[in-house]
Amino acid sequence: MKIKIKRESKFQQYEVDLENATLLEVLNHIKTTQDASLTFASGCRSSVCGSCAMRVNGREVLACSYKLQDGDEITPLKNLPIIKDLVVNMDKAYSFNKLSKAWLNPTEEKVAISQNDEKLNEIQSDCILCGSCYSACPVYTLNPDFKGPFSLTRVFKYISDKRETDEKEKIDAIQTNGIWDCTLCNECTMVCPQDISSKADIEKLRMKSSIYGYIDPNFASFGGGLSF
Amino acid sequence: MQKNILIIGAGGAGLSCALSAHEAGANVKVITKEYPTRSQTCMAQGGINASFGNIKEDSVKSHITNTLKSAHSLADEKMVEFLCKKAVDTVQWLDKIGVCFSRTQDSKIAQRTLGGTSAPRACYAQDYTGLKILHTLYDRCLSKNIEILNERFLLELVCNNDEITGAKILNIRTGEVELHNASAVIIATGGYARIYDNHSTNSKASTGDGIAAAFKIGAKLSNMEFIQFHPTALKNSAILISESARGAGGYLLNSKGKRFVDELLPRDKVARAIDKQIKNKEDVFLDIRHLGEKFINEELPQERKLAKLYENIDPINDLIPIKPVAHYTMGGIDVDENSQTNIKGLFAVGECANHHIHGANRLGGNSLLELIVFGREVGKFAVKEAKEIDQKIEILDDIKLNENPEINFYEIKKELGNLFYSNVGITRDENSLNEALKKVQNYISKLPEMGIYDNSKVYNTNKIEFLEFTNTLLLAEVIIKSAIYRQESRGAHFRIDFQEEQQIFEKDTLVTKDGIV
């Protein structure tokens, strides 16, 4: 089986004799037997640590849960600085969690969470921060400061949590370079290994923002014409 | 001048510690060789024990009794009592900061029964308990603006007059060696089950780096021979198939299609029964076909997905090929009730430490609890003890490694894993252990002939994997010597040549650089 891996500016081809193997198993095989300099990140092998996200033929996958096909082309995630081969630097992407204030402001009061309450953000709390959505998002070619799919999903997660005491703080934080920059193209949903739809979460955050008096700035720019 | 607390490791223990040290007023820096959310903690599925009694009556006393029974007289009763008493408060704190625990119909935290417990005690968040706890702690650290340095590998701990002064860290991204000074260093680097290489459920990162570094500067290690094997991992990939598959009524079958053990016995007993079948040339399978497609899809969706992916079978129609593999390491850096090691200013917490909680066998649901309870305690204590210093980082010369190796360490790493699985595994005896010791000592003597093939500076994973391998090799010798010394069977340590517990071994195996104490 042949596999092409993007290294520096060009593709390098490797030949492996492994049947029915995951991409991660193949990468490990190459590293330990053919080319120790091949660089990629991995951890749990069972799709919960989010280390091994990369692209196969242009599509984001977790290397540990993708079965390699002959002729596959492997490239690193997009929209992120490449450190080496298939390893990207996640620091800036993760910093959007902080800028979006994606955390809970707890209350001292006892809040009862029902099974229904729990379902409100169960899937959002399945996020493994693998960065697939970030890579697939077309907004980054225009706006590198877009707070992005996983951070906005995380904001939705905390806003929909009954225990949150400062919803407005988060709504305020995601107005600029946030929810209104999304084009609702749904690419993030298509590539999420955990079946999370950041696009849907962003739509819900837009509705929530309107309750706080925010309006779509793209729409608002036409507003001036109405005041005679 | 400030109290500078350096925490190495950013899993459940490291982040809990960071939060409490920050709250106690210290300047906190967390270093991880990955990113926090990639830590081993994310793999914990089962739950975190606390005797709320939300499902059925339960008590702190029962929690203590169950923990001590599983520990086979090697746990410290006072420490176990402390852990169990703190459990309810600890889970309430996690709930308060936003962990999405599953709920009961009357809006309480849901609890389930894990092996060896008298009540449904493990609070869980679907099959993602560890993941959701870890991510919530991480978000909380962001809210407190705690400094976290990603992708930095611990090389050495630095001491002056038997007191810790900092740590040498390899910045994986730049290849530079940094010396970080600190008033106190807390090791929270996780366990060492990856010594078994592909015979372990653990993340590839569980290579005992912090334990090896502490050992090298004279820290005492204890009970390193106690390694828990999980009965059911996928045969080819060692991916965990959760205990809930057996809990729900799954059978264990051999090649003849016969059941051979009560599937609900404790982990060590089931693992030994399976091991015996495998040693008699039988293949062993987990059979959940009779549970039905609907049940499997609802309750065991991860298991179905993983079996399809790694074994190419569908558990709805097929048997799942399994084997027992290394899952959790009970031993570690020996610490007292304040998580203090025998070196001033050096603390250890989490799986890398031996807090004398698990003894000879860990109870399911107690490991997540240990991380959070002792993580929060050590944060406070270390700050209280710490001196004020000026924080600084120095850049040191690069480490020198053999760049023309004659032996491929990746091959030895694999051999070491196979050797440990066969000779220092579910069962051991004097011959198997002596043979393993001889081989490991031979590998150690050949270390100068091993090295790295990639001599680049930036993000050199070949170098990191070699350094991790040398850490496991160092610990391998300690584990085998401890296992040879303990001429009895107790909990997870099973000697074919000494099958009973012996009163004289009702004590910890303590090891220093000079050997067994």
Mean pLDDT of chain B: 96
Specify Rg of chain A, calculated over alpha carbons.
20 Å
What kind of oligomer do you see? heterodimer
Distance between the termini of chain B: 39 Å
How do the strands of the widest beta sheet of chain A line up side by side? 2-1-5-3-4
Q: Could you say how many structural domains of chain A there are in total?
A: 2
Could you give the order of the helices and strands of chain A? Answer: EEHEEEEEHHHHHHHH
Task: Break the fold down into its secondary structure elements and pairings.
The complex is a heterodimer of chains A (228) and B (517).
Chain A: E1 2-7, E2 10-15, H1 23-33, E3 53-56, E4 59-62, E5 72-75, E6 82-84, E7 87-88, H2 91-99, H3 115-120, H4 132-136, H5 149-159, H6 167-173, H7 187-191, H8 198-211, H9 217-220
Parallel strand pairs in A: 1-5
Antiparallel strand pairs in A: 1-2, 3-4, 3-5, 6-7
Helix pairs in contact in A: 5-8
Chain B: E1 4-8, H1 12-23, E2 27-31, E3 48-49, H2 60-71, H3 77-96, E4 111-112, E5 122-123, H4 129-143, E6 147-149, E7 152-160, E8 163-171, E9 177-181, E10 184-187, H5 209-216, E11 221-222, E12 227-234, H6 244-247, E13 251-254, H7 267-279, E14 284-287, H8 293-299, H9 301-311, E15 320-329, E16 332-334, E17 346-348, E18 353-354, H10 366-385, E19 393-396, H11 409-423, H12 430-446, H13 461-485, E20 510-512, E21 515-516
Parallel strand pairs in B: 1-2, 1-10, 2-6, 10-17, 16-18
Antiparallel strand pairs in B: 3-5, 4-5, 7-8, 8-9, 9-19, 11-16, 11-20, 12-15, 13-14, 14-15, 20-21
